Amino acid sequence: MQTVKPRKPLLALLMSLVLPGFGQIYNGEVNKGVWLIIGLAFVSVPGLAFLALYVPGRLMIVMLLAAVLAALAIWVYAMADAWHQSKRKQDYVPERWQTSGFYALVLIAGNLVALPVLGGYVRAHFVESFRIPSTSMEPSVLRGDFLFADKRYNCRGCKGRIARGDIAVFTYPNDRTQLNIKRIIALPGDHVRIEGRTVEVNERELGPPGVDAVAGDITETSADGREWRVQWEELAGDPVIDLVVPPGEVFVLGDNRSFSRDSRHVGTVPMQDVVGRARQVWFSRGPDGIRWGRLGKTLE
User: What DSSP character marks residue 108?
Assistant: First the structure.
């Protein structure tokens, strides 16, 4: 004889709170539950990666907000629908698969396996978010910036190629457990000479020739047709550099030249350790609060 059991609306709601679609599976609507799980996974992981890589800076914040609202809408709908359907279909005969062990398996597979694996894959191969904790790349990248880095850069079979002027994320030579962010100014085989505020690559000075900036001034510099701003605070202790970049390595500098530990101090960086290129700022907060003007700023 089959046993008729009452469904528990509160349990269905709480299950969808933990994982959207989980309550629908409890209600016997497996197809709807699976699609809700897939929908949330797509919006929260590949969807955000697509926005980070392809949406223009001026639309970034609007589209990120839309993605967050879409994820919340899926979550709220899943909870409300699970509650409603559980009340509507109060009495039911449990299927053989409707056991506590099966529900535990779904929860583990969804929350502890599928979503983390999908998120890890996207971060490793497509895009990753970083928070900037230092001032070494000011004025281009500020302390308190949250930025997206394109992880398709410098990987085998990818389109991105390392170029002078790129703001790169790389494994820090002195501590390989940490990532660092600096600007690439020289490629393998380039001759680099740095003395005082003069930086030369292949005997070409980066920045306006002959300019002796006052400490704290921000000056323009350029390479291969790309322009960016740098600043110097002081010269005391800055080493004189005169070298040729070894094969398979790059020379990096921080834009805040006097407050950056870069290739002047730790040597050149193997190209294989360059893991991403900074693309755009998606959030920024400083001592005075949110820097609204930097939200969506494309990094050059």
Answer: I
d(Cα 243, Cα 276) in Å, to the nearest integer?
25
Domain that holds residue 172: 128-294
Q: pLDDT (tens digit, 9 = 90+) per residue, 153-189?
A: 887 766 668 999 999 999 998 888 999 999 999 999 9
Locate 227 and state its tokens.
Answer: 């322009």
In angstroms and rounded to an integer, the radius of gyration of the C-alpha atoms of the chain is 26
Look up residue 243 and give its DSSP letter: E
Q: Are residues 145 and 287 in the same domain?
A: yes
Instruction: Give the whole-angstrom CA distance, residue 16 versus residue 202.
Output: 61
Q: Please state whether 80 falls in left (phi above 0), alpha (psi between -120 and 50) or beta.
A: alpha
* 246 and 134 together in one domain: yes
Q: Per the structure block, which two tokens stand in for 156?
A: 């085998």
Residues 16-35, mean pLDDT to the nearest whole number: 92
The predicted model scores a pTM of 0.83
CATH assignment of the domain containing 263: 2.10.109.10
Q: In whole angstroms, what is the distance from residue 193 CA to residue 174 CA?
A: 23
**Long-range contacts of residues 245-250, Cβ cutoff 8 Å, at least 24 apart:** 245/186, 245/187, 245/188, 245/189, 245/190, 245/191, 245/192, 246/188, 247/188, 247/189, 248/188, 248/272, 249/188, 250/162, 250/168, 250/184, 250/186, 250/187, 250/188, 250/274
